[in-house]
Design brief:
By secondary structure, the chain is an alpha/beta fold. The chain has three domains: 256 residues, Rossmann fold (3-Layer(aba) Sandwich); 113 residues, no CATH class; 51 residues, no CATH class. Helices cover 49% and strands 16% of the residues. It contains 15 helices and 15 strands. Strands 5-4-3-10-11 form a five-stranded parallel β-sheet, with helices on both faces. A hairpin with a 5-residue loop joins strand 6 and strand 7. Helix 6 packs across helix 7 and helix 9 crosses helix 10. The longest helix has 27 residues. The radius of gyration is 27 Å and the shape is elongated. It binds one RNA strand of 76 nucleotides through helix 2, helix 5, helix 7, helix 10 and helix 12.
Amino acid sequence: MTIRVYNTLSRRKEDFVPLHGRRVSMFVCGITPYDATHIGHAKTYVAFDVVARYLRRKGYDVFYLQNVTDIEDRLIDRMHKSGRSWKDLVKEFVGEYLDGMTRLACTSVNLYAYATDYMPEILEQIEGLIAKGFAYAAEDGSVYYDTTRYPDWGKLSGQKVEEHIAGARVAVDERKRNPADFALWKAQKPGEPAWDSPWGKGRPGWHIEDTAITVRHFGPRYDIHGGATELMFPHHEAEIAQAEAFTGVKPFVNVWMHGGMLMVSGEEMHKSLGNFWALKDALARWEPEVLRFFYLNAHYRSPIDFAPELVDEAGRSYARLRETVRTIDAERRRTPDAGSADAALRAATATALEAFDAAMADDFNTREAIAAIFEYARSVNKAVEVGTGRVALDEAATAFARFGEVLGLFARASADDAVVEGLMDLLVRLREDARKRKDFATADGIREGLAKLGIVLEDTRDGVRWKSA
RNA sequence: GCCGGGGUGACAGAGCGGCUAAUGUGACCGACUGCAGAUCGGUUUCCAGGGGGUUCGACUCCCUCCCCCGGCACCA
């Protein structure tokens, strides 16, 4: 099946065709570690994690590269305010970020590239841009990109230079030749970290680190560039201008993907509004899989509204699917060879796998893919009720494993082993004996005791089944 | 102001020029049941922001208005 991907550059869905056979180079704008990772970051990275997972599932050899902008204005600002070194801040916030990503099962990144590890490439690009006439050094040792020299400026976001000048609400920096010009290199101010350059001490401007990183790893053109929509202008626009002018290769990126923003109860998330949700706080309140499921419940390009009640609701919704997975596990333990509902379940499994794949192939439509899983879950539950056999159940387990692998869900490890199964058989039998004697106190005592261990007993028409947490 | 993206049933949220608007949550009814849990069946939405237009037919395409969100070159 052809994968269709919405490309911001063309504003439509396109057939996904990698540049080099099955190899896919994918870059996603990472964090600037100047503050806590929040739930908006997490939405973006969960979305692109699924993109990478799905492409890999489809047989693509994806190299997923993400930058860490470990030198930037906001970081310096934080440094001044906190009295801590920028390296110290980077260490803390990157650590927190990676911890959150691990817990959210965002495990598909191949390499996190730190801006400051690419100084040679950054300087090379700036020098190259000056040599080609796309950039100029100002008196103070800063270097700017001359946007008037780049005809495609604005092609990604649809911005027009003249209109920006008309709508500008801030005074134009007088070191610049044109209002739209942006800094490639910023001259050092007192107390700021700095690196040597042909223009004196300074640091890279925001934007240049990403092209330095991608040109080094991917060359002048690569397959997918992702990020949240807020980065479209000026950040991604600047990347295009830098890279295409520097390498002379167009287009710099084949597919631009942008994820929708996250709101909190209908408002922008801000510390000053008191509605700021650090990722670690959200993870303290909800299970990582629930949060992940919440994000994937909407299409990645849609903005989503974050509200505790909505995440709770997603949790209830997700519990239904998780319950089906547990039911499958429990039923498989009974190991019937065949059942009356085998054919129905096997057909449903095939249908579900197909529907899931079709949804994912259509611009990674996780919401529709999840809808397919829900429909399938009902089929599974129905088949189990009627009675289904081992082969069909094994297929169902495999199907859920497939969904889970792509979405990063259903990862609960089952702790079953032979001893546990033997003990459970024994307990279930003892409880059944008690029930037959109408000794419900003993029966309920066994059930409650197991519940405390995370094991649920369910009495069904054709016997007891148990599920581990 | 300019650029981009949205406004769908109680809520969340998809698809599609034409079958009852997917799926989930919630609520209600029923089945199952010693109790519990899970599950199954059914019910609950029917001016899809307002107005115009195209069409045999629009939630889906076009125009317009309203509202919401993000971005808009300094860099706090």
